[in-house]
Design goal:
Blueprint (H helix, E strand, L loop, with lengths): L2 E5 L3 H13 L4 E5 L3 H15 L7 E4 L10 E4 L17 H17 L5 E4 L4 H11 L7 E3 L3 H15 L6 E6 L7 E9 L2 E2 H8 L3 H9 L1 H9 L4 H15 L4 E9 L4 E10 L2 E5 L6 H21 L1
Parallel strand pairs: 1-2, 1-4, 2-3, 4-5, 5-6
Antiparallel strand pairs: 7-8, 8-9, 10-11, 11-12
Helix pairs in contact: 1-9, 3-4, 4-10, 5-7
Length: about 300
């Protein structure tokens, strides 16, 4: 039986729950929120929709004791209301830290042994913190990291080339934040180097990269939040674990080389991060990756 716990029922959490239920992706979904009445309302809304959907999912508002045998817990809590237009994901950290500590205490109390996937921001700092607090192997703690940023890069490239974004391979690496960068040496379109294509078509790589970096704020500055794409990224990573996919995906994971969580490609399966993938980066890309690790560490040190 596929059992998933969802902690945090705001814009992202509610959309994640909807994606899971509409897709029939789990057998049992337990929702927890510090505002229990909010969780109850979301569950009621989902239950009302069940008879209209092709799949049955057992959905209920639960307690932490209900998560003891969960395969995966999704940390979607956050305080996006603290971020101002044009702001920074780091703004949420002070408010999120106490809640991350509370979640960790509760999960340790029930001796949770599954996989934790976090969307909570600033993502790399948060999964570093979870790693310090939870009684779990580091490989069982995953952040969405630049999974979504990579999708945003592909969206920009697909728009520039007028092709399906699923035809594009490649990665945005580093921090889920301002120090992230597109590793253009890894980007391929139908097996061809995108650098060659960009040169032929006279495309502005810096512009494409910046649009990908600012993609979240392009949505946030009008809506006041983001939810659809990050929910899709969260559910996609969840499915790789539940299905034991042994698939290569970009996510925030612990890298012994850097002594930190950082987004580079990894092999994802039922045990979480099962292996790291070494990319043949250029010298400049290696430098940018190290700089991004330093940015993450500075933010960790700021609140440690």
């Amino acid at each position: 039986m596929r059992k998933v716990g969802l902690i945090g029922c705001g814009h992202v959490g509610a959309t994640v729950a909807l994606d899971i239920v509409q897709g029939g992706l789990v057998d049992e979904l337990v929702i927890i929120d510090k505002k229990r009445e909010k969780a109850e309302a979301e569950v009621l809304d989902l239950l009302d929709a069940l008879s209209l959907l092709p799949f049955y999912v057992k959905i209920y508002v639960g307690e932490y004791t209900d998560l003891v045998n969960a395969d995966i817990i999704l940390s979607t809590l956050g305080h996006i209301e603290l971020i101002k237009p044009g702001g920074d994901r780091f703004t949420e950290l002070k408010a999120n830290i106490p809640e991350i500590k509370e979640v960790s205490e509760q999960l340790n109390r029930i001796n949770f042994k599954g996989i934790l996937i976090a969307t909570t921001n600033p993502n790399d700092v948060i999964v570093n913190l979870y790693s310090q607090l939870l009684n779990l192997p580091q490989s069982h703690i995953i952040g969405t990291g630049t999974y979504l940023d990579t999708a945003r890069m592909k969206a920009q490239v697909s728009k520039a080339l007028k092709i399906d974004g699923r035809a594009i391979e490649g990665y945005v690496l580093g921090e889920h934040g301002n120090s992230q960068f597109t590793a253009w040496s890894t980007v391929r379109v139908g097996g061809q180097s995108f650098l060659e294509i960009a040169k032929e078509k006279n495309l502005d790589l810096e512009d494409l990269e910046e649009k990908a970096r600012q993609g979240g704020f392009a949505v946030f500055n009008t809506k006041g939040y983001t939810n659809v794409a990050i929910a899709a990224a969260t559910v996609s990573l969840m499915n790789l674990v539940l299905s034991d996919a042994k698939s290569i995906a970009i996510c925030s994971h612990y890298d012994e080389k850097f002594k930190s969580y950082i987004s580079t490609p990894a092999l994802i399966g039922k045990e979480g991060v099962e292996a790291l993938v070494k990319l043949p980066l250029t010298f400049d890309e290696e430098v940018k990756l190290k700089q991004s690790v330093c940015e993450i560490q500075e933010k960790i040190d700021y609140f440690s």
